[in-house]
Write a structure and sequence with these properties.
alpha/beta, 12 strands, globular
């Protein structure tokens, strides 16, 4: 897809408001195409650093934690993640996004008998405290539920400077919230724009994603000169909560996490219930 300077600037404006994945869905294009537009602007020297991305190298042993949707996370999931972290001697933690649910402010129907916004946020912060204590330094790839309040502010035409940062609101000072993390040439992103398998095949680059609660796998793809893997992490949600009533007639969630070693080995761990 070719971009005019006007179109690329339009895409940049939307990315600043709702993030890369949401912009891709709105325009009906792949996340990689959104990034291409941003790189085009960067090449034209119109913006200094178009993609909100952290790049880390050095042979890391990464624990990737699935969607939590606090305060509707599953009891015991944190202890499961702590044990997996220790089992593989991990040194880096990535939360794959949707660390909070924001059910009260959803664009979809909400439960009229559910919590108020204040009560849900207060409880979400309390539920996150043990995660923050266990993993005080971590990366968080921002998910669609995390971004819900930011989207509401855009709908209401509220300037971004009025909005606090995620770490301020959630009281997680050591967590870095970003659209995407690249560690040892493996991309970590929440994954609203499609499956990890599709993204890895399209870009021929290894990737790890969340978002899809019922999928937990590692898939390898082999080209002429290289091989890449795609990983769906699974999640850590409490499926019995009213927040997931919309999915009660569908598949049950895949409760688990993943470990990625040196960007070369990917292991899915399933929590026994």
């Amino acid at each position: 897809m070719a971009y005019s300077l006007k179109k690329a600037r339009e895409i940049l404006t939307r990315v600043e408001q709702v993030g890369i994945a949401e912009t891709a869905m709105e325009y009906g294009i792949a996340a990689s195409s959104v990034k291409r537009a941003l790189r085009y602007l960067n090449k034209k020297k119109k913006i200094p650093n178009p993609i909100d991305q952290c790049v880390i190298n050095g042979g890391r042993r990464v624990l990737c934690v699935g969607d939590l949707h606090c305060p509707f996370d599953l009891d015991g999931y944190l202890e499961f993640c702590i044990n997996v972290y220790a089992k593989y001697d991990c040194d880096t933690v990535v939360f794959i996004g949707d660390v909070i649910d924001n059910h009260y402010t959803s664009y979809h129907e909400t439960d009229p008998d559910g919590m108020s916004g204040r009560d849900e946020l207060d409880l979400a912060i309390e539920r996150l405290k043990p995660y923050n204590k266990a993993f005080p330094e971590a990366y968080v790839t921002i998910g669609n539920h995390d971004r819900m309040v930011m989207r509401k502010s855009v709908t209401s035409n509220v300037p971004r400077r009025w909005i606090k940062s995620y770490k301020e609101v959630l009281e997680t000072p050591g967590w870095i919230f970003t659209d995407e993390v690249s560690i040892d040439n493996v991309s970590y992103i929440h994954g609203e724009a499609g499956t990890a398998k599709t993204r890895a095949l399209n870009e021929m680059s290894s990737c790890v994603q969340g978002h899809r609660h019922t999928e937990l796998y590692t898939h390898w793809s082999f080209g002429i000169n290289r091989s890449v893997f795609s990983c769906q992490v699974g999640c850590g949600i409490d499926f019995s909560s009213f927040a997931f009533d919309y999915a009660k007639r569908g598949k049950k969630p895949a409760i688990g996490c993943a470990v990625i070693i040196n960007g070369e080995t990917c292991i899915n761990e399933v929590m026994k219930l």
